[in-house]
């Protein structure tokens, strides 16, 4: 006979605990009939966090990254990225971008850092059928490849606005409050300025996605004080503390900070 289905809330020692055995962490929020006195061994959200971290094994992360497979066009864009020395987003980040574009019904999207079109293609595939991707890159050669990739994937040229130039020169020319989603994947040194620009460009309820938000894995290491880590840490913290954003930090790929403009 199979074991009865149990709802797992938290663990003390990484072993599952039946919901019925777990005293509530916030008894004052429960009806008085269900309140129990606090105990030293009560389960807390921290225990839940510890449990989820222990399940983020390298194999689980690999599974996450391969969960939504890439087709031939994406794989081609990825291999061209490697050839020209561009770090394209991982498939897990790509799938998340497509998800965000679809969830937000995105029609107008800005991408900072076109590369060879990997992230752009994921975004286009999540956007509304009449949506336009505005994508900016300082390297015309990367954009030449991306343009071919978008065509190869069946997107007519009218679905993309490919702008060649430095992000901080181009962004001031874009209209205020006109965009549903902004994806930032270029120079870390310009992230703070890109976030300021995103706040101006997004409509209320629009989304920001900032790539590289784990600073190559060093974000949580207090001993890491290199310029890139410090810069990313400051940007991530500023967004968390701003009243203008509702953020979440996703551990996919190199880390994706997502935030909704209030
Ligand atoms: C990490 S790659 C982008 C990869 C792309 N998002 C993808 O996943 O397919 C970064 C890109 O940003 C571009 N870039 C770097 N600095 C820039 C700047 N200041 N303004 C615009 N583009 C920049 C680079 O030329 C490069 O193509």
Description:
With 262 residues, the chain is an alpha/beta fold. It has two domains: 1-55, no CATH class; 62-261, Vaccinia Virus protein VP39 (Rossmann fold, 3-Layer(aba) Sandwich), CATH 3.40.50. It is 37% helix and 17% strand. It is built from nine helices and seven strands. Helix 4 (91-103) packs parallel to helix 5 (118-126). The radius of gyration is 21 Å and the shape is globular. Mean pLDDT is 87; it is low at 1-25 and 38-46. It binds S-adenosylmethionine (SAM).
Mean pLDDT over the residues: 87
Order of helices and strands: HHHHEHEHEHEHEHEE
CATH class call of the largest domain = Alpha Beta
Overall shape: it is globular
Major pleated sheet: 7 strands, mixed
Overall domain count: 2
CATH architecture of the largest domain: 3-Layer(aba) Sandwich
- The fraction of residues assigned to DSSP E strands is 15-25%
CATH topology-level fold name of the largest domain: Rossmann fold
Cofactors, ions and other ligands in the entry: S-adenosylmethionine
Identify low-pLDDT runs.
1-25, 38-46
Terminal Cα span:
51 Å
Structural class: alpha/beta
Q: What is the count of β-strands?
A: 7
Give the helix proportion (percent range): 25-40%
CATH superfamily of the largest domain: Vaccinia Virus protein VP39
> What is Rg?
21 Å
Strand order of the largest sheet: 3-2-1-4-5-7-6
How many helix segments? 9
């Amino acid at each position: 006979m199979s074991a009865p289905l149990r709802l797992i809330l938290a663990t003390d020692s990484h072993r599952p605990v039946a919901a019925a055995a777990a005293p509530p962490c916030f008894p004052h929020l429960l009806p008085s009939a269900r309140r129990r006195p606090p105990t030293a061994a009560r389960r807390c959200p921290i225990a839940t966090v510890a449990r989820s971290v222990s399940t983020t094994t390298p194999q689980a992360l690999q599974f996450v990254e391969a969960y939504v497979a890439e087709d031939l066009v994406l794989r081609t864009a990825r291999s061209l990225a490697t050839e020209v020395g561009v770090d394209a987003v991982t498939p897990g980040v790509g799938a998340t971008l497509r998800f965000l574009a679809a969830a937000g019904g995105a029609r107008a999207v800005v991408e900072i850092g076109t590369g060879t079109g990997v992230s752009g293609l994921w975004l286009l595939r999540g956007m509304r059928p009449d949506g336009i991707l505005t994508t900016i890159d300082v390297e015309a050669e990367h954009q030449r490849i991306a343009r071919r990739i978008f065509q190869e994937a069946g997107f007519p040229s009218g679905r993309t606005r490919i702008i060649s130039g430095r992000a901080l020169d181009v962004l001031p020319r874009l209209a205020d409050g006109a965009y549903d989603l902004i994806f930032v994947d270029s120079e870390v040194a310009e992230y703070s300025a890109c976030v300021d620009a995103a706040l101006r460009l997004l409509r209320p309820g629009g989304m920001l996605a900032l790539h590289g938000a784990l600073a190559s894995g060093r974000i949580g290491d207090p001993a890491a004080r290199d310029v890139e880590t410090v810069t990313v840490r400051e940007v991530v913290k500023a967004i968390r503390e701003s009243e203008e954003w509702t953020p979440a930090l996703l551990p996919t790929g190199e880390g994706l900070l997502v935030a909704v403009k209030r």
